[in-house]
Write a structure and sequence with these properties.
alpha+beta; about 25% strand; single chain; 6-stranded antiparallel β-sheet; 5 helices
Length: about 180
């Protein structure tokens, strides 16, 4: 039996409900970059349970010199139950707002350790973040046969988490301000 060590792999994008969000994603990216931009869905992420239809890599088409080549569009998981006016402290809306606030908070507080947050779309229930691309993951390093690589990846992860922790200590009010503005 083969064991897949990668946490995620990608497959070509398949037409699904995310198509209707693409224009909104382009407008959001254009606003963030200050240049006209469009996004074209190219790949969906797949984990051991199947396609993650809520996480899509999109190619960016823009004349902006600072525009990324690709971005990640992460949308609410349960689109049928998503309601931006929902104020309950559980469910897909609450979870999406947690992703949104967390990505925004970390992007401004620890830009060296976090993907850039380009913005979110309240009605569409999605956020756009920097695509950090494929790289060795801790999971892959630990499952591989190279103990030096595994040690290196674990030390990088510990350093990153330590920096995030140190920079975010005492910033709960700043995070809560972002989070509460969404609900």
């Amino acid at each position: 039996m083969a064991i897949e060590t990668a946490m995620f792999r990608t497959i070509p994008f398949e037409n699904d409900r995310i198509e209707r969000l693409i224009d909104a994603a382009g407008a959001l990216l254009s606003s963030s970059l200050g240049y006209k931009a469009t996004s074209i869905p190219t790949e969906m992420f797949v984990d051991r349970w199947g396609p993650k239809r809520n996480v899509v890599r999109c190619k960016v088409d823009s004349t902006c010199p600072d525009a990324p080549d690709t971005v990640i569009l992460r949308r609410v998981r349960d689109t049928d139950a998503y309601d931006p006016a929902d104020t309950r402290t559980s469910g897909p809306t609450y979870q999406m707002f947690d992703y949104w606030a967390g990505a925004s908070f970390l992007s401004t507080l620890t830009p060296e350790q976090s993907p850039m947050f380009y913005g979110g779309h309240l009605e569409g229930g999605f956020i756009l973040i920097e695509d950090v691309g494929a790289r060795m993951s801790v999971v892959n390093a630990l499952a591989g046969g190279d103990s030096e690589e595994a040690e290196h990846e674990l030390l990088d992860l510990a350093t990153c988490l330590g920096t995030i922790h140190a920079k975010s200590a005492g910033s709960e009010a700043q995070y809560l301000e972002l989070r509460n503005a969404l609900s």
